[in-house]
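Annex B. Sample input.
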Amino acid sequence: MRERNTPMTAFSERAVRALHRPKRDENTSSSLGHRLARGLGWFSLALGLTETLAPRAVARAIGVRDRRLTLMALGAREIASGIGILSGSKTTPWVWARVGGDLMDLALLGMASPTRGRHKRELATKIALARGVVAGAMALDTVAAVWLTGAAVRRSRVLRRVQHGQATITIGAPVEQVYAFFRDFENLPKFMAHLVSVSKIDDKRSFWRAKAPGGATVAWEATILEDRPCEFIAWRSREGADIDNSGTVRFVPAPGDRGTEIHVSLRYHAPGGKLGVALAKLFGEEPTMQIRGDLRRLKQVIETGEVVHSDASIHRGMHAARPVERPSDTQEERQESMP
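Annex B, continued. Sample output.
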C-alpha cells in the first residue's frame, strides 16, 4: 500500500475556500463596523485636507486663535488615519487611533478660551459647538472600534475551532469503481469509523449521523455542491447542522496503471460549549490522521471486500501475541501432536 500527501489542485483549493466562507449572518456586526469605519475614514480624510489646506478658516470656524501649525499637524494626523482606514489593512488599530486623536482634540479645545472683547460670547458658542462635534465623532469612532474588535475576537475563536485535514492513498482499482463506491454516500460508514449511517434524500442531498461520546449521536444534512463523474466531488453541510463541515474528493488515475489515487480534504467547524468539546474528541485532535485511517479502510474494502482487522483489534485488554485457539484444538489433540 502506498500512501502519500500531495498538494491539491488550484481548483480544489479554491473550492475548499469557497465552502468555508463565513456566513453573512455571522458577520453582521463586523459588516456594520466596517461600513461605519469606511464612513469615518472618508470624514477623517476630508477634515484632514481642510485643516491642512485652510487652517485659518478652520480656526475661525471653531472660535480659536490662529494656530496654523497646530491645525496643519492635526490635519496630517487625520489624513493618515483616513488613508489607514480606507486602505483596508489593519482597520481596527486605525479606528482606535482616531479615538485617541479625538481625545487629543477635546483636550486642546478644553484649553481654548475666547479672548476678551465684544465677540467673546460668539467665540464661546463656536468652541462649545466644536467640542460637541468632536465628542459626537469620538462616540462613533468608539462604536466602530468596539464592533471591529469584537468581530476580530469572535473570528479568532472561530478559527481556533476550525479543523482541516487532507490525505491521499492509492487504491488498486479503476477510477470508475472507486468513484462509484464513494459517490454512493451510504457506503461511507463501511470505512469511516465515526459514521453511523448516511441516508440518501435525493440526488444532491443526504442525511448523516455520527457517533459522539457517551453513546450520543450528532446529525446533519449535506448537499453536493459539485459532482464531476470520476473526477471530483464537493459537499458541505446545510444550515442547522450539529457540526458545520465540508469536504472534497478528487479521483486521479495512478501512474503506471496501478489503480486510482484518491485525494480527500475535510474541514469542520466545531461549535463552542460541551458539544464542541465532544466533537473535538470524536474527530480527534489531528484530522489528517483520522482521514488516513479511513482511507486505509476504504482501500481494504474495495480491494478485499472487507476491513482487515489485526490480532490486536479482536482482543480486549492485554493478551499474548498468538492466534486465537479454535474449539477443535483440545488438550488431547495438542498432546498427540507432540513427539
